[in-house]
């Protein structure tokens, strides 16, 4: 049995779709942990075992992990978490104990690039995510951390600005090239690991996308796909702080985002070489054509 956390999010919903497509031929049972089962499509609810509640709750994960062979682990956002440690390792603590209690064999977690780079120890959310990986690995479970760069899909948060003003913003230098990954590719990587559980020990699986692009590159490609000029506007970190606080994000998480973005501009995501094994398939142009353009035109 495979247990999927956060099954209604961008990655979890796509992962669930992939696993449901494979379950008939592979004979895999699927179980999901979800706060509101009503957010799952009816056809999905009919084919999975549903455990209602938060996967940060000890009683919930104790029920959910009974009989589980593998778990997909994703920490949900919590804008009011008192600290980054509480949001990542604190939230994961009950699950880490339940992995051991129930003899879960394999866990695949959503994490971040950066381990081993000079700025990794002061990279906010990334640093906290890597500490969460260490906590899970310490249980003795076979663990693979999906080491991700910035999600391409984060641009959807700026769809209105791209549509109305022809502008998207960020804090990194306009010509700094870096990897980005589509959430559907992250889900596909997770599915492959969950279905083929021949791996052992602990480690990272980078998901780097097929190319490194700068914000200026992104603007050029968006302009070509959308058929209108799109430009990148660099924000100061102070302006970014004000924007985050205005969306109700607590001080600890705001500082974590600032530290993470500062580290990315200093090369946080540059430490892993792209190979056939670390490159994921979705190009930024394809993502713009298939995802961004429909969102902007909606």
UniProtKB/TrEMBL annotation:
Domain NAD(P)-binding: 8-165
Any coiled-coil regions, as ranges: none
Protein name: NmrA family transcriptional regulator
Top-rank taxon: Bacteria
Family matches, as PANTHER family: PRESTALK A DIFFERENTIATION PROTEIN A (PTHR43162:SF1), PTHR43162
InterPro entries for the chain: Ergot_Alk_Oxidoreductase, NAD(P)-bd_dom, NAD(P)-bd_dom_sf
């Amino acid at each position: 049995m495979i247990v999927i956390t956060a099954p209604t999010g961008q990655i979890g919903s796509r992962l669930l779709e992939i696993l449901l497509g494979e379950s008939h031929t592979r004979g895999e049972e699927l179980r999901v942990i979800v706060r509101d089962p009503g957010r799952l499509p009816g056809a999905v609810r009919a084919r999975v075992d549903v455990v209602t509640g938060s996967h940060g709750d000890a009683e919930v994960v104790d029920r959910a992990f009974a009989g589980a062979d593998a778990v997909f682990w994703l920490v949900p956002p919590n804008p009011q978490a008192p600290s980054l440690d509480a949001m990542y390792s604190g939230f994961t603590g009950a699950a880490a104990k339940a992995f051991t209690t129930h003899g879960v064999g394999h866990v695949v977690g959503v994490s971040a690039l950066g381990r081993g780079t000079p700025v990794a120890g002061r990279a906010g959310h990334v640093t906290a995510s890597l500490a969460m990986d260490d906590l899970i690995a310490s249980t003795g479970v076979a663990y693979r951390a999906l080491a991700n760069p910035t999600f391409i899909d984060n641009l959807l948060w700026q769809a209105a600005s791209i549509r109305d003003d022809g502008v998207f913003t960020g804090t990194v230098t306009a010509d700094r090239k870096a990897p980005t990954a589509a959430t559907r590719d992250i889900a596909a990587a997770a599915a492959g690991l969950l279905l083929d559980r021949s791996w052992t020990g602990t480690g990272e699986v980078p998901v780097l996308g097929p190319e490194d692009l700068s914000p200026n590159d992104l603007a050029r490609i968006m302009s070509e796909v959308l058929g209108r000029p799109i430009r990148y506007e660099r924000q100061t970190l102070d302006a970014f702080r004000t924007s985050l606080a205005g969306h109700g994000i607590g001080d600890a998480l705001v500082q974590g985002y600032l530290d993470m973005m500062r580290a990315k501009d200093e090369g946080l995501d540059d430490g892993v070489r792209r190979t056939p094994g670390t490159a994921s398939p979705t190009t930024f142009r394809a993502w713009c054509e298939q995802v961004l353009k429909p969102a902007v035109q909606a």
